[in-house]
């Protein structure tokens, strides 16, 4: 199994605790997800979305210096303001704008993970995870919440 990227809505107190002790994030992850709230798990779509955002010149860095190959690496805290900006950026960039930049050959040539870009389902896979992340970020922004992102 390869690296999956997930976002979790957290409280300001959780953000402060994680900032002081990154290991605290591992304890808080399960408690951070609330039943009935949108999920911020974008599975393995992270690199395809990264590619499309860059190709469309959308100023949104989903990875924020996270290393997908570092295993259980340090999480990244997104402030409530950063969550809000990301939600607005995504809301103003429909997936159709990103899809116009889809190039399976270039994605393969640039080793965009995972190696699925010549499959029938890859467009739907990317769209579904983009829209799911937008729903999560919009909800977190409405709650004025920070978020935690990490590879799991």
Structure, explained:
There is one protein chain. The chain is an alpha+beta fold and 152 residues long. It has a single domain, classed as Hypothetical protein yfbM fold (3-Layer(aba) Sandwich), CATH 3.40.1760.10. It is 47% helix and 10% strand. It has helices at residues 12-20, 24-32, 46-55, 80-91, 95-99, 104-109, 122-142; strands at residues 5-9, 40-41, 76-78, 147-151. The protein has a four-stranded antiparallel beta sheet. α4 crosses α7. The longest helix is centred in the C-terminal third of the chain and has 21 residues, at 122-142. The mean pLDDT is 92.
- In CATH terms, the superfamily is YfbM-like super family
What is the CA-atom radius of gyration, in angstroms? Answer: 15 Å
Oligomeric status of the shown chains? single chain
Please give the CATH architecture. 3-Layer(aba) Sandwich
Low-pLDDT ranges: none
Number of helices: 7
Please state roughly what percent of the residues sit in beta strands, choosing from under 5%, 5-15%, 15-25%, 25-35%, 35-45% or over 45%. Answer: 5-15%
Report on the biggest sheet.
4 strands, antiparallel
In the CATH scheme, the class would be Alpha Beta
Reported by name, the CATH topology is Hypothetical protein yfbM fold
How far apart the termini lie comes to 10 Å
Helix share bin: 40-55%
Which strand order spans the largest sheet, edge to edge or round the barrel? 2-1-4-3
């Amino acid at each position: 199994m390869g690296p999956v990227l997930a976002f979790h809505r957290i409280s300001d107190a959780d953000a402060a605790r994680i900032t002081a002790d990154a290991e605290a994030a591992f304890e808080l992850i399960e408690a951070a997800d609330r039943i009935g709230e949108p999920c911020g798990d974008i599975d393995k779509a992270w690199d395809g979305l990264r590619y499309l955002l860059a190709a469309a010149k959308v100023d949104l860095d989903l990875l924020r210096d996270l290393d997908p190959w570092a295993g259980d690496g340090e999480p990244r805290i997104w402030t409530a303001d950063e969550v809000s900006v990301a939600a607005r950026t995504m809301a103003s960039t429909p997936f159709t704008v990103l899809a116009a930049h889809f190039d399976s050959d270039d994605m393969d040539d640039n080793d965009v993970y995972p190696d699925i870009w010549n499959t029938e389902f890859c467009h739907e896979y990317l769209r579904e995870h983009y829209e799911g992340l937008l729903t999560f970020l919009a909800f977190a922004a409405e709650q004025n919440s920070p978020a935690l992102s990490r590879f799991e």
